[in-house]
Amino acid sequence: MITVQCFAHLREQLGQDQITVEKEKLTVKELLKELTDQYAIQTDSLMVAVNEEYAEPEDSVTKGDRVALIPPVSGG
Amino acid sequence: MITVQCFAHLREQLGQDQITVEKEKLTVKELLKELTDQYAIQTDSLMVAVNEEYAEPEDSVTKGDRVALIPPVSGG
Amino acid sequence: MYEVTPDVISIEEVTNKVVRPEAGAIVNFIGTVREFTKGKRTLSLTYEAYPAMAKKQLERIGNEIQGKWPDAKVAIAHRTGKLAISDIAVVIAVSTPHRKDAYEANEYAIERIKQIVPIWKKEKWEDGEEWIGDQLEKTNYPDGKPEEVKAP
Amino acid sequence: MYEVTPDVISIEEVTNKVVRPEAGAIVNFIGTVREFTKGKRTLSLTYEAYPAMAKKQLERIGNEIQGKWPDAKVAIAHRTGKLAISDIAVVIAVSTPHRKDAYEANEYAIERIKQIVPIWKKEKWEDGEEWIGDQLEKTNYPDGKPEEVKAP
């Protein structure tokens, strides 16, 4: 199982600050597809962070990684 | 008599923080000439302030004005 | 040198981190909560962060600056939680031997913060509240998600 | 808003003068005493001012900024007397609704201070001391007067 942290509007929309995918290993791209199917969220403008770094679509995500969905940021 | 304030290297060179010219009224240009003659100071790079504003060579200086010699500044 | 904190930020404290004998110039950027944006009145802002990653991304910005302005020293603090009008959201301090670099590096830091640091703000107005959606502060998410999102 | 003072300058105090609901950005410039300039070690600096005129010229700079950046609010404090390494000589705070203007107006202020404000610094090194002679910090007066001066 992979746990994915959610923030800001996504957290509010989902009503929870983390969601899960029943996989051991997959690519970022596959992860986003899974999340879209499972949680009906729109992922086009989301970045994925793996272990606190931005990840590319072909990067792999493994159980135990710290994974998060990063909406467009608005700090500063 | 017109009193002229001096600062920085000029003050140290003259050994005093003000000097005087025995005139009632003259132009800035004439004032500088007087000071050169009387105090052996070199005035080429000096500005003259009259009542705390930079003055032009043809501006007039009258007894009672607050007059100062302003070397190139180096604050900041 | 890099902090994401729910506590009030002290300008002096962040600035003191970059004071050093080699520096003659320090430039601070202080982001405060503005009351009016395009005529609309803001009541308060709430900043939410992904703290561990936000700190890491601030460090990355520091490293980028070190690469571009090797003589610069940088400290950044970003606040989270609910802020009132004029409260300080972010302080960036950059010291350099000469001032030009301090201005440039500082401006670079705030631009990059708005691009890559995972912190989000929710604006509260008299008639509602919204998460602000992009780093250029141009897009709102009226229904909680980016406008430009299409079904995948 | 404009101060020439022998007392220690508080960054917070100068900054607080420009905090206001319309502002989202504050940029500070803080000039500190640098230890090394072109390899030469400075022990201390002494700033001398013509205080009444210096204050007036700082106000003039504020007015110039108001003309160029109408939304800017400016506060400036410049210290006088003897300063040690890393002591603060000058603090300029500029607040604006948007940050670009704050950086620009702030940089304009320090440039103008170095041009028109009657404040002079004397640098003390291990092997002597000199009044610094022009606003670009390029000319010393080795014998107490500008090099370029000719007999009138």
From TrEMBL, chains A, B:
SUPFAM superfamilies: MoaD/ThiS (SSF54285). The keyword Mitochondrion does not apply. One of its GO terms (biological process) is Mo-molybdopterin cofactor biosynthetic process. InterPro entries: Beta-grasp_dom_sf (IPR012675), MOCS2A (IPR044672), Mopterin_synth/thiamin_S_b (IPR016155), ThiS/MoaD-like (IPR003749). Belongs to the MoaD family. Heterotetramer of 2 MoaD subunits and 2 MoaE subunits. Forms a stable heterotetrameric complex of 2 MoaD and 2 MoeB during adenylation of MoaD by MoeB. During catalysis MoaD shuttles between the two heterotetrameric complexes. This is Molybdopterin synthase sulfur carrier subunit.
